[in-house]
Amino acid sequence: MKTNQDFEYEASAAGRVNIIGEHVDYCGGKVFPAALSLKNTIRIRKNGTNEIRLSFTDIPNVFHLPIDRLSEYKTVKYASYFAACALALQDAGISLVGCDVLSDCTVPFGSGLSSSAAIEVSFIAAILALVGAEKSKVEIALLAQKAEREYVGTQCGIMDQYASACGKKDHAMLLSCDDLSCEYVPLTLGDYALVIANTNKPHSLSDGKYNERREETERALKQLQTRLSAPCLAAVTEDAIKENRDVLPGVLYSRALHVATEVKRVEKAAEAMKKGDLESLGRLLKESHASLRDLFEVTGAELDALADAANEFPYCLGSRMTGGGFGGSTVSIVRKDKISEFEAFVSERYERAIHYKPDFYTAEIADGITLRKIKG
Ligand code: GLA
Question: Quick check: CB of 23 below 6 Å from ligand 1?
């Protein structure tokens, strides 16, 4: 059994909760996530071989990834994210060295809280430290996104990897996904807390539905560009979408309308948070969920049951799905002294509708990457 002291570096990166701004990052919009204390930690040391030897604290699997044959592991469960990141590092001109890697994840898998971004970002940060290469947190986030897009196959935006790398304790991040400028907004919720509820419906973004939504937004933009000049879909207003409905056939109209209205909600939510207007923030969360359900169609029975139950609870100001959807988690603004009542109330209704239980976590907002030299 390896102990902490056997390793040279320890790098952690966070899971994330997105307060609002869903399915707008890849459309060039603003998002409003925060990094969680749920995280992935990588411990790493050189091993003098030509392999990345990968083990985990919570599963018995061990993988030996030859550095010159990484692409063979691109689709191997548990190893794929590591192979993808190592390939992205090689593409960026980083010479990899043989190493032992121990991965410890406290972000529940499939929860929609970005366990994959936490793994990718922490692994890339650990490798860079081990080989003595300097990269900024934003560069690490971009490398992780590249790994996910080019080698895992999910055409994701930048929100998850950015929040995982650049998160700040007790702050939400108002991130502009077009130019990556980021305003840190203190998370001041007073008597309230963010409660995350996991549907426990396994969710995976690489199964195609996520990429399908992304393509629909790209097609909607192309159609709109036949009428108006817009650099990205998030720059097109709700009015412009309504006026040009005739060039947006089928679902393209509702997809575009979600993006335009969600972009406005993000602005309003950040303002509400800055003013401490939690009632308005809660209302925006509810509207966001409805839009993701009716216009973007990424919720499903489980997320709807969970958000509906939360929104019926008298001391919950608002609840919505968070992350990519199709399963995963909700985020709710709940009065701190009512959290256990909230959990019992929501759990009972959810189980009645869906026939299994959800899980709950009270969100602690933490830093993104943290790096520590252990020895050597
Ligand atoms: C996933 C993706 C993000 C973002 C969200 C939806 O989490 O990784 O880039 O698109 O879905 O907002």
Answer: yes
| Nearest-10 crossing angle of helices 301-312, 339-354 | 140
pTM above 0.85, yes or no: yes
| Nearest residue (CA) to ligand 1, atom 8 | 156
| Minimum-distance ligand 1 atom for the alpha carbon of 214 | 10
88 with 214, same domain: the answer is no
Domain of 139, in residue numbers:
4-185+365-373
Count up the domains in the chain and report the number.
2
For residue 66, give the H/E element and its range. strand 62-66
Q: Are 88 and 217 part of one and the same domain?
A: no
CA-wise closest residue to 20 among 339, 251, 278, 360: 278
Rounded Cα gap, residues 223 and 21, in angstroms: 23
Confidence tier at 375 by pLDDT (50, 70, 90): confident
pLDDT per position as a tens digit, 318-327:
999 999 999 9
Take atom 5 of ligand 1 and give the residue whose Cα is closest. Answer: 324
Query: Does ligand 1 come within 6 angstroms of the Cβ of 110?
Result: no
Q: Domain with 55 in it: what CATH number?
A: 3.30.230.10
Nearest CA to ligand 1 atom 2: 156
Max CA-CA distance within the chain? 65
177 and 224 in a single domain? The answer is: no
Length of the chain (residues):
376
